[in-house]
Amino acid sequence: MTGRPLKLLTGGAARRDDRPTMRSPSTSEPKRQPARFVGSDSGSPIPRFFLYGEEGSTEQWLVNVESLALRCAQQGWKIEPHTHPRFAQIMFVRSGRGVMSIEGQSFPFTSPVALIVPCHSVHAFEYEIDTDGWVLTIAEHYLRELAGRAPEIEEIWRSPRPIAFTKEQQEVADIRQALLRLDSELDRSAPGCLLAAEACLLNVFVSLLRQNQAGQEAPAASGAGGHAALVARFRDLVERRYREGLSLTDFAAELNVTVSRLRTACLAVTGETPIKLLHDRIIAEAKRNLLYSDMSVAQIAYWLGFEDTSYFSRFFHRLCGEPPARFRVGKKG
Q1: Rounded distance, CA 111 to CA 176, Å?
Q2: Rounded mean pLDDT of 72-101?
């Protein structure tokens, strides 16, 4: 299998040249290559990579699927803490077990399970040797496009977590077949192959969405489609400027909408207020730096745009239930 810089449903053909070699999903031993970290963002104290250990630019990629063993065997079945600035991932573990550490939490897991890794989440894994499965990587901007058409997809990426299945469930076979077909379609040049690839991806999302919401009422999505584009623009703006200390009024002005309209759109699409989404992004970055950097609390406050360290500490305490210094000691201890 090969890494594919895809352009799905955008009128452009898939580029087939300059592709790094990858293995197709299988249980056989992958070819071992030196571990490499490329595409890192040195401006952040947290390691940020496009694909863990992958060489070459992935800026045009929309979708990639590969064997879980390709990444893990090369690293001794242990993936160190890192984050992806432009991609979200799903690790579908068909056999084996391990521990997912993400955003300061640890999740032991046993197959079959789907491990959800939203964009920007600091994550690490320890797998049992010879764990079998797939890594599905999706570009963030493509996820936003899909969510604009089907807002319920947002539910999958709301938080990092494992979504567990039982071996007897039909969804396990459905996801496996969809990933194998996705891999095949991405390597083809037949008419309609990109449409077929997106259909396979959506089949995976549907299975995950239904499993995640099993026993619960699906969140009402009525009217959410009309707000999805605005929420996507807001999230993109937050991602670019959350460290600048802007008020919600400033964000709304940048988007040329009222605060009331922005609030209505965010509630319709995500179930959260815009200020909650903004604060969640700030807190996520604060936690990452507290857990995975050597910066002091004062340095982290400054990094996040706070002029007053005491105010930052009160802000963190109010939202997390404890001051940042205690959070750091408690999680590392």
Answers
A1: 13
A2: 88
